[in-house]
Amino acid sequence: MSTIELVLDDSRRLTGKNLLWQRQGAIIDAYISGIDKQQLIAVWQQKVTKLQQAVGWQSEQVCSRIFDNGVNLAISAPLDALYAAVDLNEMAWHEVEVHYGVAAPLMSFELQVAKLISLIEQERNQRLTQLIAAAEQHNTPWLVDDDEFSLGFGVTTQVWSMADLPAIGDVNWSHYQRVPVVYITGTNGKSTTVRIVSQMFEKAGLTCGVTSTDFIRVGKTIIDSGDYSGPGGARMLLRQPKVEAAVLEVARGGLLRRGLPIPEVDAALITNIAEDHLGQYGINDLAGLTATKFIVANALDNNKPLVLNADDPQLVDFAAQHFGENQRFAAKICWFALDKDNPVLQQHRQNGGLVSYVSDNQLVYQDKAQCVALIDINDVPMTLNGAARHNIQNALGAIALAKSIKLDDQSIVAALRGFKSDATDNPGRGNRYQVNGATVIIDFAHNIHSMQAMAATVNAMPANNKWVMISSAGDRNDAFISALSHATLQMAPQQVIIAEEPTYLRGRELGEVPALIAQAATDHGFKQQQLHFTDSPLAGAQHIVKQLQAGDLAFLMVFSQRDEIVKLLQ
Fold first, then answer.
1. How far apart are CA 489 and CA 292, in angstroms?
2. Residues 343, 332: Cα–Cα separation, whole Å
3. In the predicted model, what is the mean pLDDT of residues 265-269?
4. pLDDT tens digits for 524-546?
5. What global pTM score does this model have?
6. Domain ranges in the chain?
7. How far apart are CA 121 and CA 201, in angstroms?
């Protein structure tokens, strides 16, 4: 008989539309073995429902998802009782553990209910729920967190502390308005596309706010640095009084931890799907990751546009299953692709759908009314004269998103023409420098898919000799570091610089990651005399710069010391 193992991996609030459903509440991620998962869900549902009924939550529901080695278990709850919902779900989970004999009882059912009722009463905020209900009736945008409640976005926003909420009769509902807001997600290209689209809004005369994995920015002013791709970043941005439009980068982690930052946006874009950060929150494969990215489609109703990459098979397959009549999503798809003869694009175009593509080196947008060649690829600096095909895709996605929300052609073209692959416009993403007549490219390619894109870019550029600097953070497993190194070495350099990352060891010993990279290089056919080791990325960059000749090409994979390396190259 198999040993039963039940491991509660994470328990948290869900504050927005999410992977399982469109309700707020609480969720548990659990790993299980030695027992039928469907049977466990039935037991959990029985325990949860009993507690829900006992605390007066008869109208609240439950939802679950099975993955290969575990389950997600979610319950809905009132917005002013989400912390209590987490406790209720954890109590039910403990009762599941008791049921299967892997835990002992902690308290009686009566004490559990008494504790939960006390927590619900402490958290209850009737004025808040009444304000939210009134805002919904007036179609007024609102935001809430533990400390503050606000009405309106950007230029019309007003914020109150939880201790000083207004009376409903004192609210001038007509004052609080929305601003244009779009979501951008995907595995690679998110940050680049966010920055391009924000420039399109700016060229259209709107002060654009941005949330990303790098910072929160309003216009040209960075409000704060760090990863702000979740709900907290969205709230902070949309409460900024200068914001007239907003571009929100939404990453996998925030989508799974909390759900969508806001329930409705004007358009959304999914750039692509590739293996990255699998194994968290029950997302263990590309199918689960694809479904996670498509959470953004839940924010699109009334036939609002969802922009998708027709060159990505995961996106194509998922869309075929979940869109159309009587399907899950109601968004209007706009496809983009590098080739105008892409079969998905062809079929969509024949049906009168929105598309964006490359034709005769032009970036084209087409809808029922018009077919417009907007700009030549060579006039878009970030494409490196067409060598950076991934940035051609990013440009097409940005065009499709901007056109679908009616931004004018002049603003779109001006943004693309002015957006450069440098440390100002797009730091750490394909930044190009000229040193002693040689070309140096810096990129923060952090996964295999993005590194393969950079390899294709480098291989499309002329070079007398190639230099490559490779490094990696220590929190990736051996197989990943080896695969990332092999992807980088597809650039076929004459010399390979292997740089230690002393600030990114993350549990490894000095020399451990460089040894893995060196082994990958040897396996790839490189000779020992082609490999050079340095104790930091800056030292590696210095070594390369000293030896560069006119016509050479160097690629620097940079995790740390980016500012110092940029200063060196400038």
1. 31
2. 18
3. 97
4. 889 999 999 999 888 989 999 99
5. 0.88
6. 5-123, 126-175, 181-215+256-418, 431-569
7. 45
